[in-house]
Amino acid sequence: MMRSDPRALQLNEHGQLKHFLTLDGLDKTILTEILDRAESFLSMGEQSVKKVPLLRGKTVVNLFFENSTRTRTTFELAAKRLSADVINLNIETSATSKGESLLDTLKNLEAMQSDMFIVRHSDSGAPHFIAEHCTPNVAIINAGDGRHAHPTQAMLDMLTIRRHKGTFDGLKVAIVGDILHSRVARSQLHALTTLGVDEVRLVGPKTLVPEFFTEMGATICHDLEAGLKDVDVVVMLRLQKERMKGALLPSEGEFYRLYGLTEESLSWAKPDAIVMHPGPINRGVEISSEVADGERSVILNQVTNGIAVRMAVLSMAMSGQLQSSEVQTAGDE
């Protein structure tokens, strides 16, 4: 389904974001700009009036073909704090076939003169498809598509790492769990390598950590102790049982015994290592409650940072669309 070069599709004539679909192809300058802008929004949460007028008069549509209360809520909060009008649409996909049904939905929403679609879909490439076929000057934000990408989650994770570690230089990061089915892991890998960490280790059983990830710059580890040895950041992923086909795991108990993050296994990482998880957490499956709620856990910080990162992405994409529109208008005169 992904026909267009992601960089060409996402950037306007000035190299600014106009869609946010994937981190693949975006350079360090753009990722750093997102993080810097998000930093500027973080203090808003402490203010009595949590709004700025950057998207005043704009209509943002949360177009979720796949359920996710947490992601939808943070996008809604981000848009509202930017003063946008927000429409939430939860669409059942049992009878949805990509192509005609997506286009029909798109045409109806465009008729409402929407300015931005935030799209979550179980099929990889759906946000790209919409970006290729939507009316010009409508921004498309990927809120997660199939196994492909979850770029705003990866960027809120990058902000969390930067705020706790100060820099990406020299860091060793372990991502542990169901890598095979994880769009978060793919986006994190793109972000971490682009921002210049020293090493990204993908840790888990052979059935859930395919060797082809080495082509994306990762180190593969099938032993937890080797994977966590002296790392600065540990990212735990949940087992996505809803996406699994066949016997990829002997049991949840066996997975926890071999790859669960406990106080004992966390001791293999550096003493100041932080623990992250994109949520939802399965306690006693991939992580113990002691670690999830412990002093090295920054999981709740990730949630807070998510609103600021999504505010940054929404404001940058809308600005990029407006700049692109001005170029088109000048060309038509």
TrEMBL record:
Q: What does this chain do?
A: Catalyzes the condensation of carbamoyl phosphate and aspartate to form carbamoyl aspartate and inorganic phosphate, the committed step in the de novo pyrimidine nucleotide biosynthesis pathway.
Q: Using the UniProt record, name the top-level EC class of this enzyme in a single word.
A: transferase
Quote the cellular component terms of the Gene Ontology held in the record.
Answer: cytosol
Subunit architecture: Heterododecamer (2C3:3R2) of six catalytic PyrB chains organized as two trimers (C3), and six regulatory PyrI chains organized as three dimers (R2).
**EC id:** 2.1.3.2
Instruction: Indicate what this protein is called per its UniProt record.
Output: Aspartate carbamoyltransferase
Q: Which residues form the Aspartate/ornithine carbamoyltransferase carbamoyl-P binding domain?
A: 18-162
The Gene Ontology biological process terms listed for this entry are: 'de novo' pyrimidine nucleobase biosynthetic process; 'de novo' UMP biosynthetic process; amino acid metabolic process
What residue stretch is flagged as signal peptide?
A: none
Q: Which organism is it from?
A: Marinomonas pollencensis
Pfam families noted in UniProt: OTCace (PF00185), OTCace_N (PF02729)
